[in-house]
Amino acid sequence: MTERQKDRPWLMRTYAGHSTAEASNELYRRNLAKGQTGLSVAFDLPTQTGYDPDHILARGEVGRVGVPVSHLGDMRRLFQDIPLEQMNTSMTINATAMWLLALYQVAAEEQGADITKLQGTTQNDIVKEYLSRGTHVFPPGPSLRLTTDMIAYTVNNIPKWNPINICSYHLQEAGATPVQEISYAMSTAIAVLDSVRDSGQVPEERFGEVVARISFFVNAGVRFIEEMCKMRAFGRIWDTITRERYGIEDSKQRRFRYGVQVNSLGLTEAQPENNVQRIVLEMLAVTLSKDARARAVQLPAWNEALGLPRPWDQQWSLRIQQVLAHESDLLEYEDIFAGSHVIEAKVDSLVTECLAEIERIQEMGGAMAAVESGYLKAQLVSSHAERRARIESGQDKIIGVNVFETTEPNPLTADLDTAIQTVDPAVEARVVAAVTRWRAERQESTDRQGNGDPFVFPTTQQALEQLKEAARGTENLMEATLECARAGVTTGEWAGALREVFGEYRAPTGVSSAPVAVPAESGSPLAEVRRRVDRTAEDMGVGKLRFLVGKPGLDGHSNGAEQIAVRARDAGFEVVYQGIRLTPEQIVDAALEEDVHAVGLSILSGSHAQLVPDVLDRLKQAGATDIPVVVGGIIPNADGEELRRAGVAAVFTPKDFGITEIIGRIVDEIRKANKLHPLHITASTEVPA
User: Fold this and answer.
1) Fewest CB within a 10 Å sphere: which of 50, 142, 462, 633?
2) pLDDT at 521 over 90
3) SS3 of 406, please?
4) Whether residue 15 lies in the annotated active site
5) pLDDT tens digits, residue range 398-420?
6) How many CB atoms are located within 10 Å of the residue 483 CB?
7) Is 34 a catalytic residue?
8) Of 557 and 71, more confident
9) Which pLDDT does position 425 carry in this prediction?
10) Which of 533, 556, 557 is nearest to 546 (CA)?
11) Is 341 a catalytic residue?
């Protein structure tokens, strides 16, 4: 018997980027030297949402969750000494995807690269931003146009590039079931493909090339049998849709191509060492089955629930992949699940349910209509609320969180301040100064401008005017965007020009329409908290307690804020929740205008150290010192202590998983701030200190 040739391993990436382009470049070159086979660029929130580092909303966010890229100079430095023609680069970018690809292309051209050889992926899935991640900028229609134009441009000019990965990853983070994850992702893909087809930018006979460049980016949770079946169902449904709806005959063009980042939602702050085995199980879901194996895998680090991973933590996750690919015999065999009646039954069930949900969304008018109506968001908020309720009740067991909580001291976290990487607060000032210098020094001379001919080399302002003119019309926006990149336009200027034409968009929150997930049955913890809410309102002489949930800064991870808002509503509060991306001034203005009795701030991006004290100072200046402020997010212990000293009433982190208990704590803080005596708390609702 002839020995079977071993399969090639998947692309191995680490999602990385922080502080500055220079620091991130050093990290990338170090990771490549360790055997990483592709790059996955994390951009900071101002870059993702189209703001320059000196914008008011960028304060506290610069370089926190990724690298700031404000102009062509930053892109040059980010990839200095990394030959882009030989690299496979994934860029997690959505609303500003066209802009970042333009910067990448121009940087590659300056290296002397043949752009037809560039390989990589831009995420470019705006639908999931409206539903779960929150870095959208423009309304659905213009956003879909940007995606459509970019797909058409890359198919015609950068044929090896994946111009979009339909991203179901964040849908699972927002509470999606496997059926919702598949259905919403496929509905997004249909909307995108229909738009490209109907734009007429790609001839009908070449539409298979468009389908062949569509990739997906998925999540894999710890229920690895279910997750592996999910991937098989994904592939089967994609094959059906591309063949039946779009008439693609070439099986290679219909192939389901996906990359994966395994689930960060399930990583715990409590007993974080358990995250290592969670990551391994999740990786197996997308690698064990050859017929549903990921093309690229990036693994989170064990300490991501604590803060920013260090290079060593990222190396550990890379080594997990390398051991499986190079030491085990996994790649020596055909699909090991083929013929399993258990697997086939589960896949059949998923396919049937998903096709029904996809049809339901199509009857609504497709994915974009289902976003604008609020249907998709409300479904996710509801699913997430049900999941949280199962965890709180103990029905879903999370080791170290709601079961087996006793533990030995952890040497990995003995010194929490060194267990994660921190970003120097001075970085932001340096980046702001650098973008100011760039604007002052970018070349506007006549030799750069082709002796004054704007049709050869437009000035910065001319390039922006051409972009706005193109946006008002119907031409592909990529060429005008490339001219902006070459002219030295900044990220904020490019997005600002399009904001002028397209406007901005505030997506539905899904909070008001979410059904009750935890009923306040007699004797239940929620019923007890509701009693305390009602009693406190009575003691204060108000009809209802009012609670403002605020998302200051650019952090769009709204899942936690939404769950707090829904549970507070179910506990009897009148909830004020205006969604994401607010300044401290806007939050305080809303708190005063709505006459609220407490403010809850949710921040996961690390900007709490600057934004929370600003809210506190503004409340104090307004004389509203009787409004307690509580904060939730990924907040290191030392930062939590600082916030308490600054006047924050309570700090909640991922280890505080009991939402009903959190609401009870908020009631206590309202009573304390208003000098009311404490109410008796029964044992069943005792809260952590």
Assistant:
1) 462
2) no
3) coil
4) yes
5) 999 999 999 999 999 888 778 88
6) 21
7) no
8) 71
9) 82
10) 533
11) no
